[in-house]
Specification:
The complex is a heterodimer of chains A (808) and B (202). Chain A is of the alpha/beta class and 808 residues long. Helix content of chain A is 39%, strand content 19%. The chains are: A alpha/beta (808), B alpha+beta (202). The interface between A and B is large, with 45 and 41 residues.
């Protein structure tokens, strides 16, 4: 690595928790003898004021620009060091912590010298990772232009109100200029909200009068490009003119879901048996009906008991409206007795006064609609009764809706087809992500009532306003460890976007294929499974790159004894469990050397391959519990990568068990210990990989194979989410798919080895010579050579009638 | 530079260091429970008390929050200090008898039993609030706090139901001095059950 840097290591004594258990003087001596390390200090407590002062002095005196603290848990202490050492010019990424106390000192009965040796290997690996770091500048985020509220949902108004109250200019893209029309049509999305109309009108009037809010009527949203702080939003012109482009700093989406009518299985006919939206329309056009009105709250029967609260509130509101206006109407609410009647004490009294009858039924016997009657089973006496009706009003079906889906798709908010837009919130520390959520409001997010939709709008506006205020003050920075795209390498395949849920990966312009991507640094959480999946290594996590992890793992692998094991621990699972085992002083096999990653999914297959190439005999990956990934399905994606490694190890003739994926719950360190001990026992049985020339050649081939775009492509297509049942290429058969995958991998493995050999020797080879050198049969070699010649990678020439192959 | 004596040894300190910082820098151990290097000192558990002597006067202060001052005469393990620590540990034994960490620490000071009433033999938590401070200051998530008052006070998320704010990083579990957070953590993390949106999702 060409990085000029000076690395300082600070060893903590930590009272008596490290010092007498680890021979720190030996460790210091060893580290001082290492060319990589520029300075070594020993502190009683690095983390306390005296220790911190002495570290700062050492940094200034020795010109250190990378620091390794060999102390305790990085998860707990790293932020303090980053905060304190920022004044010394060290940014996040330039400081790393080795948990000498929790991973070395407290967890085994090794001698202090042995522990010092273990600590040395770990510290050196971490230092190598720091050496490979090229720190980036702190990226300031600025806002250009006003905020835009689009999507046309009713939350537009509450968001605009909040923004204008906070003095932020905004553009509200709405479908109609007249707010009266909005209220007239509101029941299409939010039926039974008449009691709210006065309040809504007040909001609309305020927005109307505000000089900060500009209302525009536009056609369909066609594209969104840019990133937090500077977007280009394009709409089609409603009058058919040229597309209209707006430059805005922030985007809030106000999207209302769609209300659908029940099907004919509930007897819906649109005239006498109707749903909520039709009932509201009837109230608008014809007024309250006379006669017997029955609200059947059929959400349980329609398969969505979770919506019964919303439906029953809307029904209650309509029922009250009808009774208050028409004394001749007789209203009954027919509800499943599993449902709690959602009325306050006051409302119950009002309901009694108005004579609204709430009748429960036992859903075990499904009510049936007949002309003029509904039959239902009384939960008290289990007799079947018949309830007469003139109008039967059913609960609506709720869906995200076609319109909202289209907009969400363009905004990158859609994460599953047909599902509501409520996000799977990435549960990461606030410092790891610039923005904590997508600014989305309305019932397309999840079914809700008008009050909730408006609240969401206000909340999105508050969040936007806070961000703008921070940016104006010049204090808004993107997190340092986020993904960036090398535009020259990106071919725009979109694999990264497909597998990562964070929503930060966007095409550079407009939707469509083959357009290079970029990453919104304010949305990316730095999980990095996208970076590990990129077939062309176009995506990297800045300040936390794959080459840093490769440097770490190769330094460690070179230093390890044959019976020792390299492990990667995810900060949310394996690493945290190891930390907690250390806190409790639980003993386990000391031959485990754990490196820290922030998500197990950021381990590129090349990192895994590099470990074996550089001398590791086994590799254990410990992630967090299944379905619990804090980023985007890191454990599931790693499963696919480990599977690839297993196939390749088998092709090399090694035991497939040498790499294993595990998961650990941070709160169950005893389970973690079982995992570690079991893996190390198995590895002890296997013994080390013989480091013969032949085996090293194969491992070099393995490393080249996992970096081959074709293999990475196939692998990328297999990075599945747990619930997906169809394999790539629409294959449902897991076995058939696995065979295809194996075929690709073994082809590329041979090709990689041929290429390695031809490159290394730089002379023409006959097929026979190649077969002998690679210890392979001629047949598969011939197939690979033919392909490589076809691809133009390898040149073929004939000498004495025999084909010779040479690297081009 | 300030100079003071701790346990009769002359030591030096910078302005702004606490007595605990200064003692630890000089290899003098002071037991703590509610103290953690990653967060601001809080002085809740009082186990880190030390004696300050001045002529015939002497007083006890919590060393984690007491700043080093010129000419102080500090004793970290005098009879008076140890007596207070024994009292504290005896009270803690009745407060949280289930914690093995507390029992071990008490045993070191020769406290085996408690004369105070044990209201909950299963209790491990000393309510020092270290987890709460770590969640706020280290993680920045503010997912947990003390809930309830007086005898009902406990550690948890709002309404004692899993909330959206917890990122399940486990920092609270790692810093907990008594191992009590381990059980409480299960009620803090996890998918919140109250938000209706969750039931909409797969």
């Amino acid at each position: 690595m060409a990085n000029e840097c000076k690395i300082g290591v600070f060893l903590c004594e930590c009272g008596r928790r490290i010092a007498p258990l680890v021979d720190l003087s030996q460790l210091k001596e060893q580290l001082e003898g290492d060319p990589l390390i520029g300075y070594v200090g020993v502190e009683p407590f690095s983390c306390l004021a005296p220790g911190m002062a002495s570290i700062k002095k050492a940094i200034a005196d020795n010109g250190l620009d990378r620091v390794v603290i060999a102390g305790c848990e990085a998860r707990v202490m790293l932020s303090k060091f980053e905060h304190e050492l920022a004044a010394s010019g060290l940014e996040a990424g330039q400081i790393d912590i080795v948990n000498l106390r929790g991973h070395v000192a407290q967890v085994s009965d090794q001698s202090p010298e042995e522990k010092a040796a273990k600590g040395f290997k770990l510290i050196k690996a971490v230092a190598a990772g720091l050496e490979a770091l090229s720190p980036t500048a702190h990226e300031k985020v600025e806002f250009t232009g006003p905020a835009m509220i689009l999507g046309g949902g009713i939350a537009t108004y509450s968001a605009a109100q909040e923004l204008s109250r906070r003095g932020i200019e905004c553009i509200a893209a709405v479908s109609t200029d007249e707010w009266e029309d909005e209220i007239r049509m509101l029941h299409e999305h939010y039926p039974g909200e008449r009691h709210y109309y006065d309040r809504l009108e007040a909001i609309m009037k305020e927005v109307d009068a505000s000089p900060l809010v500009r209302r525009i009527t536009v056609g369909e949203l066609t594209s969104l490009a840019g990133r937090t702080g500077g977007y280009h939003v394009t709409f089609s012109d409603p009058m058919g003119g040229p597309p209209r482009v707006y430059e805005v700093g922030a985007v809030i989406a106000a999207l209302d879901g769609q209300m659908l009518n029940q099907g004919s299985n509930f007897g819906h006919d649109g005239r006498n048996v109707i749903c909520h939206t039709e009932a509201e329309e009837m109230l608008w056009t014809l007024g309250a009906p006379e006669g017997k009105v029955v609200f059947w709250l059929n959400d349980y029967e329609a398969g969505h008991p979770e919506y019964c609260y919303l439906s029953s509130r809307a029904a209650w509101s309509m029922a009250r409206y009808m009774r208050e206006r028409s004394p001749l109407t007789k209203v009954t609410m027919l509800y499943n007795h599993q449902m709690a009647v959602p009325l306050s004490a006051g409302e119950r009294a009002a309901s009694r006064k108005l004579g609204i009858n709430w009748v429960p039924y036992d859903g075990a016997l499904r009510p049936t609609v007949q002309s003029g009657f509904v039959t239902y089973c009384d939960p008290e006496d289990h007799l079947e009764h018949e309830m007469p009706w003139d109008k039967l009003i059913l609960s609506p079906r709720r869906s995200v809706g076609h319109e909202a889906t289209k907009v969400a798709h363009i905004l990158g908010l859609e994460h599953e087809e047909g599902a509501f837009l409520e996000e799977h919130k990435q549960r990461v520390r606030p410092e790891q992500v610039g923005r904590d959520e997508a600014y989305l409001a309305g019932s397309a997010r999840y079914p809700c009532d008008l009050h909730e939709a408006l609240r969401q709008g206000r909340r999105a506006a508050v969040k936007t306003a806070e961000m703008v205020a921070k940016a104006t003050a010049g204090e808004l920075f993107a997190p340092r460890m986020v993904c960036v795209v090398d535009q020259s390498k990106c071919i725009g395949c979109g694999l990264c976007k497909e597998i990562c849920d964070c929503g930060g990966i966007e095409p550079v312009e407009g939707p469509g294929g083959n357009i290079p991507r970029h990453v919104d640094p304010m949305v990316c959480t730095g999980g990095g499974t996208c970076a590990a999946a990129c077939p062309y290594h176009a995506l990297t996590i800045q300040n936390n790159t794959t080459s840093q992890r490769e440097a770490r793992v190769s330094t460690l692998s070179k230093a390890l004894n044959p019976d020792e094991v390299v492990a990667f621990g995810c900060a949310w699972g394996g690493l945290a469990a190891a930390d907690n085992a250390g806190v409790k002083g639980m003993a386990y096999d000391p031959r485990l050397y754990m490196l820290r990653v922030s998500c197990i999914g950021q381990l590129d297959p090349s990192v895994l391959a590099r470990a074996f190439l550089e001398g590791a005999n086994s590799l254990l990956l410990i992630g967090c519990p299944p379905e619990d990934c804090h980023h985007s399905y890191g454990l599931d994606h790693t499963w696919s990568r480990v599977n690839l490694m297993k196939k390749l190890l088998a092709l090399c003739g090694f035991d497939r068990r040498r790499i294993a994926l595990a998961h650990a719950d941070l709160n169950r360190p005893e389970e973690y210990i079982k995992t570690v001990n079991s893996f190390i026992t198995t590895m002890a049985e296997l013994g080390p990989i013989e480091r013969t020339l032949e085996n090293q050649e194969k491992l070099a081939g393995l490393y080249a194979t996992v970096n081959s775009p074709r293999v990475r492509w196939v692998l990328g297509a297999t990075l599945r989410r747990p619930w997906e049942e169809v394999y790539p290429g629409n294959q449902r058969n897991a076995l058939a798919f696995d065979r295809d995958m194996m075929g690709v991998v073994s082809e590329e493995f041979i090709k990689a080895r041929v290429a390695n050999l031809l490159k290394e020797q730089a002379r023409p080879f006959q097929l026979r010579e190649l077969a002998a050198a690679l210890h392979e049969d001629e047949k598969p070699l011939m197939d690979s050579l033919r392909e490589m010649v076809g691809e133009g990678v390898v040149g073929r020439m004939h000498k004495d009638g025999v084909a010779h192959y040479v690297m081009r | 530079m300030l100079s003071l004596t701790i346990d009769g040894n002359k030591v030096e300190a910078e302005a702004g260091w606490s007595l605990l910082d200064t003692a630890r820098q000089n290899g003098i151990e002071i037991p703590t429970l509610c103290y953690h290097e990653a967060v601001e000192p809080f002085g809740a558990c009082r186990l880190c008390v030390v004696e300050l002597r001045q002529g015939n006067n002497s007083r006890l202060v919590a060393s984690c929050v007491y700043p080093a001052e010129q000419g102080l005469d500090v004793y970290t393990a005098s009879e008076k200090v140890n007596n207070v620590r024994r009292w504290i540990l005896e009270m803690l034994l009745s407060e949280c008898p289930a914690s093995s960490e507390i029992r071990e620490m008490a045993a070191q000071y020769g406290v085996q039993t408690t004369r105070f009433e044990i209201s909950d033999p299963e209790q491990e938590c000393i309510l020092c609030g270290l987890c709460v401070r770590a969640c706020a200051q280290v993680v920045g998530a503010n997912a947990i706090s003390t809930v309830g008052r007086g005898a009902q006070k406990e550690i948890g998320s709002p309404y004692l139901t899993p909330g959206d704010d917890c990122v399940a990083c486990g920092t609270c579990v790692t810093v907990c001095p008594t191992g009590a957070m381990s059980a409480r953590f299960e009620r803090v993390r996890g998918v919140p059950s109250v938000v209706m949106a969750r039931s909409v999702k797969r």
